[in-house]
Amino acid sequence: IHRARLNFLPESLVSVILGAILGFALYASDWGGERDNLDPKLQYAVFSLSLKLFCLPMIIFESGWSLRQRDFFSQIGYILIIAILGTSISVVVVAEFLMYTSDYHNIKDPRTAAAYAALISSTDPVATLATFGAMNVDPLLYILVFGESQINDAVAITLFESINENDTDKSLTLGRITVKIFVLLFGSLGLGIGLALVLVLIMRFTRLGRSAHNAILFLAGSPFICYTLAEQVGMSGIITVLFASIMIGGYAPTHLSAEATTLTSFFLKQLASVGDTVVFVCCGVQAVQYHKEGFVMSLWIMLACILGRAAAVFPMSFLSNGIKWLVSKHVPAEKQHYISFKHQAMLFHSGLRGGIGLVLSLELGAYVDEDNGPGTKDSLVYATFVMICVYLVVFGGSTAFTLRSLNIPYGDEVAMDACLYGSAAESGIFYRWGMQFRRKVLKPLLVGKSSDRSQQQEINLTEAVIHDATQRQQSSAFGLRRRSTAAILPDSYNAMSLFGTSDPAHVENVEDAMQQVGTGESEALSSVTDDSDEESFGEEC
Fold it and tell me: Are residues 495 and 528 in contact, defined by beta-carbon separation less than 8 angstroms?
């Protein structure tokens, strides 16, 4: 795709097409790809359990691990406004629209409308973020889209599980739903942070970072541990993994060398890429389950989601800008970072749907068919599939075109390591409170007096191996073959596709965790970063 410069064709859509081919092959085979003839337990194992127990934990964990925490927490208040209030508004708008248009589709029950509105409000802008990474867009836009999609997932899942719960009945009041949401959201958040503390402490006291391969495998197994434990105690596994990964991404690198952290970023990104591919292949398999009612329903659902997305993004962005104006009067203009209309338009444009919506649609309860007629759940699953595909083509495929049309800075107009704030940028009382808590509590507990990384005199084996291979390849004895095909791809795309972040060694996170701002430690730790990158980073931040 990239060599042919087919930027309008998202990689995710290719996986969906391959899944559709697989689905029709199974349909025509003796094995029995036709869904109505499959054992329900086999369906659940293939489509739901494989996605929930393998794909989603790894995808969510990698997204939290690769998070640019300095940028994320500088905008955390505004991300929460758009993600929490915005998603709640979107759910209400979508549910009310589905009930208002109930004469034209199968959804007649308010509980079904609310549950489906919650699951379909979960965004997954994987195609948009891939384009952002390849084009090196404005860091404010990237962190708003990335951060909003992560918190949005947590809110949507919490709302869905509270409404879809088996013991939920029609007499459930708004107050009881609110309590359930509060317990599930903050219980999962607390559990995730608690498990992260335990896992980082294990790394600290066992000196696991001294054995890079064991540390990498330990971190790769962490999302499955967190997910399983959370589900066993009645919390949300996905929310638990999300907040655990953010905590682990901030403090585990202090116990790893720069090389080990980079290799961990690479390994987690590739596992998450496998998970993404499996999710979209499974989504494509649903193409064989054609439902006329589901197709018609998908048209109304897409219209409802467009209205819900607009109602979520634009008013909440206006509110966020109002708060920014109040709290940043004494901040230099270049550091105020207002959410312009161009940013808002791209936030609206990035509301793609993906794996979480598909998995949750498979989790809809038996009440859907009981209250709306047999086959309604199958129609909703198929409608979700159609919506994922259409949004991938329409919104995912037009990301680059929309960026250019809106004249949003990208490419050479944005420094490769551009960030919103530098390490010494204090942005108010909450920033100072947070730094004080990290310095007095988290650093002594999770890091100690000094990190393993600062004590290690590291020999970068990866760099040595690559250097040796390059020298051998360029020698006269090597022949005429050259490995040059990757040169046609931009550096930003290579970094994001390989590591999921432009800072794979987590230099920023280690600097913040160690509270060594301004001491030059970041330069000492960034052994995997070349001199030109360091100069660009320093000038930008």
Answer: no
Decide if 499 contacts 273 (C-beta within 8 A): no
Confidence of residue 90 (pLDDT cuts 50, 70, 90): very high
Q: Which residues contact 207 (CB under 8 A, 6 or more apart)?
A: 255, 452
Each residue of 173-192: pLDDT tens digit?
677 777 888 888 899 999 99
User: Which residues have CB under 8 Å from 177's CB, separation 6+?
Assistant: 162, 163
Give the max Cα distance, the chain. 80
Question: What is the distance between the alpha carbons of residues 303 and 325, in angstroms, rounded to a whole number?
Answer: 33
**With contact defined as beta carbons under 8 Å apart, do 76 and 323 qualify?**
no
The radius of gyration of the chain's CA atoms, rounded to the nearest angstrom, is 24
Classified as helix, coil or strand, 30 is coil
* H/E element, 79: helix 76-80
**pLDDT tens digits for 266-290?**
999 999 999 888 888 888 877 777 7
**The two structure tokens encoding residue 366:** 């038996």
Q: Give the Cα separation of 362 and 48 in Å (integer).
A: 7
Neighbours of 514 (CB within 10 A): 22
The residues, any chain, with a CB within 8 Å of residue 205's CB and separated by 6 or more, are none
Sign of CA dihedral 333, 335, 336, 338: positive
Q: How far is CA 345 from the centre of its chain?
A: 20
Q: Are 368 and 380 in contact (CB under 8 A)?
A: yes
Q: Is 249 exposed, middle or buried (0-12, 13-18, 19+ CB in 10 A)?
A: buried
* CA quadruple 148, 428, 133, 469: dihedral, nearest 10: -130
- d(CA 224, CA 216) in angstroms, rounded, equals 14
**Hey, what are 69's tokens?**
């925490």
Q: What's the pTM?
A: 0.83
Dist CA 231 CA 297 (whole Å): 32
- Cα–Cα distance for residue pair 181/125, rounded to 1 Å: 24
DSSP 208: G
Pull the structure tokens for residue 71.
């940028």
360: which DSSP letter? H
